[in-house]
Specification:
259 residues, alpha/beta, Rossmann fold, seven-stranded mixed sheet, two-stranded antiparallel sheet, 11 helices, 9 strands, 44% helix
C-alpha cells in the first residue's frame, strides 16, 4: 500500500472480529507475531493487520531519519485505508513504543494498547546495547544473530534449543531487516516522556523479568505514567514473543476481549 509516497507492507490474517494492529521489533518483520497468534484460543476471533515498520519486509525506508510520530501516523493511515476506524494496537519492543505513541496521538481510534517490552526513553545501558547491535550487524549479521539469541533468551530456552542453535542462527540472520540501522537510530533517540501521559485507552504492559536489553523497570515506568494501565511480568527475556508465545497469548486474549 502507498501512504504519503512510501510503500507500507502488511499482511492480513484472522476472522471478521475486532481489528488488531500488530507491530514488530527492531531488525524484525511482521512475522514476529506468528507464534503468539497461533497460541490464541481457537475461538478467538480477530482481524489482524501485521504491519512491516519502515525498512522491514516490503515497507520502504524514507530518506530522512525515522521519527516516532511519523511512524505512528503511517500506522494509523494504514488502518484507515483498510477501513478500520477503531482498533486495538499491540506492539513489541520498538513496536511497543510506536503503539504507545499511536495511542497518545489517536485516542479516538485506539480501543486498547498492549505494550510488550517497551520503554519511554532509552537509558544509558540500552543506548550502549543498541550501538553494540549496530556494530555487530555491520561487522557480521550472523555474529549479531548469535549474540541476540544468547542474550535475548533465558537459560532454560538454551537448554532446550542447544542442538538446534546453528540452524537458528542461520535462519534468523537471513531475516534481518534492511532498515535495521534506522530502527536502531529510533531506539536510541525516541523519547515519549511528553506523550505517555496522554494515553487514555485501556493499556496492558508486559515485561520480561530476565530482559537484559529493556529492563523490566521500563515496563513499571510505563505503568506509572499511563493512568489505569496494568503491568504483567513474565519469567522471560526480551524475546518473550518467541520463547513464551503461549504465555503472551494468555495475557493478550482476555485483555482484547474485555475491551
Amino acid at each position: 500500500m502507498q501512504i504519503d509516497g512510501q510503500t507500507v507492507g502488511y499482511e492480513l490474517a484472522g476472522d471478521d472480529g475486532p481489528p488488531v494492529l500488530l507491530m514488530h521489533g527492531t531488525t524484525m518483520n511482521h512475522k514476529s507475531f506468528d507464534g503468539v497468534r497461533a497460541a490464541l484460543p481457537a475461538d478467538a476471533a480477530y482481524s489482524f493487520v501485521m504491519m512491516d515498520l519502515p525498512g522491514s519486509g516490503e515497507s520502504t525506508l524514507p530518506d530522512e531519519p525515522l521519527v516516532i510520530e511519523n511512524v505512528a501516523a503511517q500506522a494509523h493511515a494504514l488502518m484507515r485505508q483498510l477501513d478500520h476506524d477503531r482498533y486495538h494496537v499491540v506492539g513489541f519492543s520498538i513496536g511497543a513504543v510506536v503503539a504507545a505513541a499511536l495511542a497518545a496521538l489517536q485516542p479516538r481510534a485506539v480501543r486498547s494498547a498492549t505494550l510488550i517490552a517497551g520503554w519511554i526513553a532509552a537509558d544509558a545501558r540500552m543506548k550502549a546495547t543498541f550501538e553494540l547491535w549496530r556494530n555487530l550487524i555491520a561487522t557480521d549479521p550472523k555474529l549479531f544473530t548469535r549474540y541476540a539469541l544468547v542474550d535475548g533468551f533465558t537459560a532454560a530456552w538454551h537448554e532446550q534449543m542447544a542442538p538446534m542453535m546453528e540452524m537458528a542462527v542461520d535462519l534468523s540472520a537471513a531475516t534481518l531487516a534492511p532498515g535495521s540501522a534506522a530502527h536502531i537510530d529510533l531506539d536510541v533517540t525516541v523519547d515519549l516522556t511528553s506523550r505517555v501521559g496522554q494515553i487514555v485507552a485501556p493499556t496492558l504492559i508486559i515485561g520480561g523479568a530476565e530482559d537484559r536489553w529493556v529492563d523490566v523497570a521500563h515496563s513499571h515506568a510505563l505503568g506509572r505514567a499511563i493512568a489505569g494501565s496494568r503491568v504483567e511480568v513474565l519469567a522471560a527475556g526480551h524475546m518473550m514473543m518467541a520463547e513464551q508465545p503461549a504465555q503472551v497469548a494468555a495475557l493478550l486474549h482476555p485483555f482484547l476481549a474485555a475491551h
